[in-house]
Design a protein that fits this description.
Distance between the termini: 79 Å
Helix content: 25-40%
Largest sheet: 2 strands, antiparallel
Order of helices and strands: EEHHH
Strand content: 5-15%
């Protein structure tokens, strides 16, 4: 006896119709897959387009995981990636800012410098938030220079 199994893929958003396409996307580091009708797929693309226009392209990334084979009755398409905007001057946040994946010795020395600047700023009447402002770092560096102390990376033994 022969057996035929059919799988009906429904729209993940409204579950009212069968899906026409599968969209693979990433948001907040989480890889997502949405089976959508053509109308809902276009609505998703239209909703994220302003954010996509302002974003920086990372190029095509491999999505790891199991994916279902494409169904021949539908096509998977994406909107074209707009041309990259001309590179602006790179933002240099300062040598003391963490890059989070640097060598432990260097990152701990940077943290020590940030902690020293924070303590100095609090002692000298600066309003401190979660992050130490560039204004406090500049004033702290001027203070160290005025005292004849090492400044910059040398102040925490990095040079």
């Amino acid at each position: 006896m022969a057996e035929i199994t059919q799988t009906l893929v429904v729209d993940d958003f409204d579950r009212s119709q069968s899906a026409d396409e599968t969209i693979l996307w990433v948001f907040d580091g989480e890889a997502l897959r949405s089976d959508l009708t053509n109308e809902n797929a276009e609505a998703l693309r239209a909703a994220i387009q302003p954010f996509r226009d302002a974003a920086r392209a990372l190029g095509k990334q491999k999505v790891v995981g199991r994916t279902r084979a494409k169904r021949s009755a539908r096509s998977v398409s994406t909107a074209p990636i707009p041309e990259a905007a001309p590179e602006a001057e790179p933002f240099d946040p300062g040598w003391f800012r963490s890059i989070r994946n640097g060598p432990v010795k260097i990152e701990s020395a940077k943290k020590r410098y940030r902690d020293m600047a924070r303590a100095w700023g609090e002692k000298n009447g600066y309003e401190m938030g979660v992050r130490v402002s560039q204004e406090v770092f500049d004033a702290y560096q001027q203070y160290r220079e005025g005292q004849g102390l090492p400044v910059g990376p040398a102040s925490v033994g990095l040079e």
